[in-house]
Amino acid sequence: MDRVSVGIAAFLAVSAAVATAAYAQQKDAAQEGIEAYREALQDGNPAELFELSGEELWKTPAGPKKDSLEKCDLGLGPGVVKGAYAQLPRYFADTDRVQDLESRLLTCMETLQGKDPKPYVEASFTAPPKEEMIALAAYVSGQSKDDPITVKPKHPKEQAMYDLGKRMFYYQGGPYDFACATCHGQEGTRIRLQDLPYIPGQKGAAAGWGSWPAYRVSSGQMWSMQWRLNDCFRQQRFPEPVYTSDATIALSMYMAANASGETMKTPGIKR
Amino acid sequence: MGNPMKIRASAKDGVTEIKVLMSHEMETGQRKDASGTVIPAWFINEVTAKLDGKTVMQAQWGPSISKNPYLAFKVKGGKAGDKVSVTWVDSKGDTRTDEATVT
Amino acid sequence: MTQAAMERRQVLTFLGALAAAGFVVPRVALANWDKTAFDAKTMDDALKAFGAGAPADSGDVQIIASDIAENGAVVPVQAVSKLPKTERIAILVEKNPNMLAAAFDIGPDTIPEVTARIKMGQTSNVMVLVKADGKFYATAKEIKVTLGGCGG
Fold first, then answer.
1. CB–CB of B64 and C73 under 8 A?
2. Average pLDDT of chain A?
3. Distance from C-alpha of A8 to C-alpha of A14, rounded to nearest angstrom
4. Residue C61 above 70 pLDDT?
5. Start and end of every Ig-like SoxY domain (chain C) (predicted)?
6. Which of A116, B1, C24, C68 could hold A33 in an S-S bridge, CB 3.0 to 4.6 Å?
């Protein structure tokens, strides 16, 4: 190589390094801005309004049996709400099923209040029956805020649910040949400015699992975990899952168990 | 009538901090529904806050305040046990008042 | 008639017209809501409605907000005045269809620091306008919006 070429090569190398550094700096400034924005949202999360209405639904007698949900067993015994969400999904002997919060709420509404779960299952996520479910989920999840996520599959049905969830996470299909893992199976990726949590890892699983239900500022809506999962199916162009079906509970079990040991930050607030 | 507000008020070193979340659509009048019809504007336009019966904040809002509004401010004075009341009035003339106790 | 009384009459007339058209039942009269200011489509008109004219730039007026908003539907803004005898604080968004987002009347015991959340249709300057001891002061900050907040 002659001297001129060496010079050009060196110049290009230096330029590239400067450009990369400038890009990194710019990216950091954007990232810092976004972090400041997210931080500013934390105080005064409108999810608290949904917690309020959820608490009222929990305590108000309703349904054919004119009873409240206050004796509902969410896994820690009848009436114990504090800390219950951080330990779901789990196996319940009375239903012989692994249940997440929303399916367990349906069980309590049926057994304690005599309500028919069908309209709650079939309603769209923006219809009044689902609004009740979402408000209840906001309230119950708020009672586990800052608690450690403690979901360790022990019962054979819990283990089976976890395994099914893991298979579903990696299952690739649909018109776009998509899987959950397409977006959430690699570390350090993002779409636009949104970080994509790496769900197989503890931190990533907690970033996802531990912050739902959440208030979405883009739509001004409160979303439960079931709604969020339903949207994952939609984004993959998969058939819509039935509300509180085993498919959704399996994915929840996979995320919750992966996140176990991290902290519950519910209800969350999202862009 | 609307849904209840969430009011938090805490006194520290002679200053009371009041934080209010309100449940309201805050419709801008700029959006269209699925059929292309403009959704009429509908938003809270006045907020009044009282500490121990005395007006400490009066706000006038337009439609560019976010849905489910949040308002936080500080007032000199006030102590634990004092009553805080917040009232909003919206562009349809609907109104709601909620109360909280300073902690 | 005083300016305030005239504005009040205009607002009441406006509500009366809406009520007559069956839009609203005015259960509570809006004494302070300044329709002219909130309807203003340009910054000049908005400032004029406030009687502000050309406010002086002031380091004693602060706007605390992140440089970037991830979503324009909710942009947290804290408006602070260090000026004595602060009477009023307003938040204006230059590129929104209507500039004025909010105005806060500050009482003698109220600390002139308010936090609110505003919608922004696009990246824009956000101005905090302060009336203190009868005079107007302002400061502005550009907030970048990665996703507009008015289209729904």
1. no
2. 91
3. 10
4. yes
5. 48-150
6. C68
